[in-house]
Structure formats: C-alpha cells, structure tokens
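Notes to self after the call with IL:
- keep both proteins in one doc
- input above output, always
- annotate only the second one for now

Protein 1:
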Amino acid sequence: MVVQVGNIQIGGPQFTVIAGPCSIESENQFMTTALAVKTSGAAMLRGGIWKMRTSAKAFQGLGIEAFDIIKKVKAATGLGLVSEVTDVRQIEEIAHIVDGYQIGARNMHNYSLLKELGRQPKPVLLKRGFSAFIDEWIKAADYVLAGGNENVILCERGIRTFETATRNTLDLNAVVYAKKHTQLPVIVDPSHAVGIAELIPQLCYASAAAGADGLIIEAHPNPAQALSDGPQALTLETFDKTMKQLERVLAAFDRRLQKA
C-alpha cells in the first residue's frame, strides 16, 4: 500500500526520509535545519508544534507561534511537514499547515483521538507505544482505518525493555512482522528508539536492510543547545554523512531514496 503525504509517497519502491528537529524553536533554527536536510536528501520535514514532555517544566513547544514559521519554511523549501497532535482540537487548528498528523507513543491508546483522525483525510503517522504489543499497535491503526481514513503509516520507535544502556530498544522484529502481516507502510524512528546520537546512523542502515519504507530522524543545527531531545539529534553534518551512506545501503537492495 502506498500513502500519499503532500507531494511524496510512502510505501512505494522508493525509501523516504523525514527529518527535522524534535521541536520548532525559532524561524532561524527551523529554516536552517529544513534547508540542510533537503540538500542532504530528506523528502519531508518533521517538527513539533506542541510537545508532550514527561516534566511539566520542560519546553512544551511554541504552539500557535510556530504557525507563521512553518508557512515560511514550507514556502522556502517546498517540503511537506508531519507534526504531532495531542488533542482532538489541534487537528483542525493545524490542518492548513501540515501534510500529515503524527500520533506519538503516549497517544497510541488514545482511541478518541484516533477515531477523530479517521474522520478526516490527511495521512496519520502512528507511532508504537513504548510498552505496546505489535498486535495492539496494529489494532490502534484499525481505529483510524475504521473511520474511513486509509492513509495510515506505522512507525516503530523503540519499546521499553529491561535494558538501560539506551533510551528504548529498537524492535526491528516489529518492522518485519508489520510489513508481512499488514498492508500499511512502516517507517522507523531510530532517534527515539535509542536516544543516543552516535548510535543512530547504524540503526538507519539496519532499518533500511530490514525492509522499512523510510525513516523519521531528528536533526538540529546545534544539538547541545536544543530545547528538547538534544542528545538524540544528529548534527546537520552527521545527517548529511548518514544520508550518503544510506544511499549505498539502499543500492545493495536495489532501492533508492525518494527526493523532494
């Protein structure tokens, strides 16, 4: 199955990379990142408008202040944007500036939100909950599909295990299983899977080799100064190097990057 997201397709023969910061922090930060990841081969942008954070004191995103920034960046780059919604009221609020909605791990079980997304036509990128079984993840997608919206993309983003060396454990078993047992495109978020930037390039290559349809990667001009998830964000230079190597890995499987 192929899902059209803006002017790109996810789930077809080409491999799609979505990239950008965890959170949109400023016009300069988002524009710099967007221009760089596009040059490196990303086909679409990610960027949080609202952020669900464990601590109420942590940066929660710019909210509506990000709207004008998004419009400027999209106009300058021609790239589409996928961004997280955490509340049913946000769906209509950002419909005019996003090309797809992301459901984060904490909201995979928010069935009211999933049902509402099933009633509108834009694509939904559904992240697996960090303690969810594969079957629960697939059944969560069914809530969107049942509403009439067939544009669902599954996203494996790591699960919580007994291992503490990394933030979560990337479950490539789930990627292979979902590809074989559903018709939905499957992408991987290695950034949230491990939370450690130096591990991410190799996990990108492994995801491509496992048959994923794409990646969603966090990148930032200055990760050390990022307002959220800095330790897992690739520098723009590392992102560029990773994309070059990723193309070589894909070529070994007779695949290629989808360019914007």
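Protein 2 (the one to annotate):
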Amino acid sequence: MAVEISRRTALGALVVSSLTACRNTGWSEDSSPTTARASTGFSSLNNMKGITLSTWNHGLTANRAGIGVLNGGGTALDAVESGCRAVELDCPDMTVGLASRPDRDGFVTLDAAIMTGEGRAGAVGFVRGVVHPISLARAVMERTPHVLLVGAGAEQFARESGLEVRPECQACDAIGGACLSPAAEREWRDWLLERQYRPRINIENHDTISMLALDKNGRMAAGSTTSGLAYKMHGRVGDSPIIGAGIFVDAPIGGAICTGLGETVLRTLGAHLAVEAMRHGMTPQEACEHAIARIIEKNGNPAEYQVGMLALDFHGRVGAFAVQKGFTYALGESLHDAPSELR
C-alpha cells in the first residue's frame, strides 16, 4: 500500500514538475505533459531548449548554469560540466568542492564522474587540491584511453591538462596538514573531541551534486561531484565516481543519478539498475521506485540511511524517489520534494 500511495503522489508531482519545466525551458504551453509522454522522440517536443535535473537545493545553482549553456546552444555535456562547476565553487552546505568537510584525518578528498548517452565516461577519485574535479573527469573521458584515474596520478594529469590544482599547506595542522575553510576546520576540530561517526540524514553527508541534462538535439549527459562522507576513513571513495553506481546514461533509453550513502548504492549499482528498468518498459518514476526498493532490500535498515534517485528519459519524462523524506531536487528553475518510501 505504501508503494502505491507514494506512486500516486509521485505521479501528481510529476505533472506539476512537467508543467514547470515547460515554463522554465521554453516549451510551448500547447505542448502538454501528456503530449510529451506520447511523443516518439525528444525532437518532436516543440521549441524545447533543454532539460536540467539536479539533486538537492544546490541543484538550482547547477541548473541555472546549465540552462544558460543550453539556451546558448551548448550541449548537454557542456551544461552538466558547467552546472557541477558552479556548485564546486559555491556549496553552502560544505559537501562539494575544496571548501567541504574533510575526512577524519583532516583532508578534503574529492570524487567526480561524467558520462554521455553514447557510453563515453570519465571519472576521478580521491583527488586533493583540484578546484574542478568534474572538469578533470571530462578530461579523463576526452583525453585518455581510461575511464577512472585516482589520487596522485589524477592530480598529476590535472596539472598536465592545465586545470587549477591548489597546493596544500604543509604546516596548517599537525594532524591533517590540510588547509580547510574556517567553517570546515571548526566543525572538524569539534568532531575530533569525540571521533564518533554519526551520519545525519539529509544534512552534511549526503549532499552530492548529481545532474542530468538533455539538450535540444536529443543528447543526454550526466555528472556528479562530491567530497563524499564527512569524516570518512582516509582513502574512502563512494558511488559518485563509479559509472553505473552514482550516474549512468544510455541512449536511447535515458539516464539516472543518485545521491546519499554511497555504500548502499555501490552494492546495487543503483543508477544502472534504474536505467535497465526503463529499458524494460518502466517510466522514470517507476524505475526510481524500483531501484530504491532494491537498495532497501539489499541493505536493510532504511531508517539509518538516505538515498535519493532521479531519472530522465529521452521523451523528457522525469522520475524522483528516495528512501526517506527530505530529498529535494531541482527541475529547471523550480525546487521539489521527492516522494519517499519512508514518511
């Protein structure tokens, strides 16, 4: 019964979201959500400049940057990179970029991934000092024969690619040796007093920026960038840079992105699971619900973690679902609360 109720709630939210997208992306008011769903392809949607879909409140920041790219004729890939870069530079909740909360040893380590519908992908993990990990992930995709680079090797490639890498201060702290933002250092030092790892749902540990974009030419891309869990073990890498876990796109089916406790997503390859569900006929909303149900089934104890999932298909349909209430997402320039299994 809970699933059926949540599905009805979600479908209602989807209609509202679709109408909002019409206004924010340049759809004609005559192109109703019903017409969009019934269409045979993205190109049949009149006057659309593109769709941007991102996780959490800071998804609005990402989407605004992405919308500007799409409105200027840019690609979905460009929109995703620009959107993620915007949050890497300005993330008030300290979960993305160099101003984020550190790991338990006092170091900010960053992960990112980017992917296109054609199957091209690039990712980086456990990098330090890189101002824009999402751009480094794109460079891995476009300039190397590899998909994933990590640690010092990824940082070296960033320098060789002309990307900004800030040196760490060796004398900043006797324990961590890393330069933290004043707010992050203050919170980290408070945490050091007890050294108890207690993730808080929907707050400091789960606010990755993950983003999907669909451009006017029917090309889709996904991206994700994060500092990962606050006070994680040094060396920990989550789901964000793992293709098929944190992000996945497959033309002509669609794409999915995840945010939340990465270990639960890694164990199920959540984004790939949702896209495969769409391949077998599920709507994006049904696919998100299916994937979240699998995550709960395999990990148990859903009250102890949060995972939020978004999906987008090539008809422009959107899906959103989470384990717990409180997961917000941005569609175009509007913010929405996702339905959830637990309420």
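Annotation: Confidence is low (pLDDT under 50) at residues 1-47, 169-177. Residues 193 and 238 are 25 Å apart (CA to CA).
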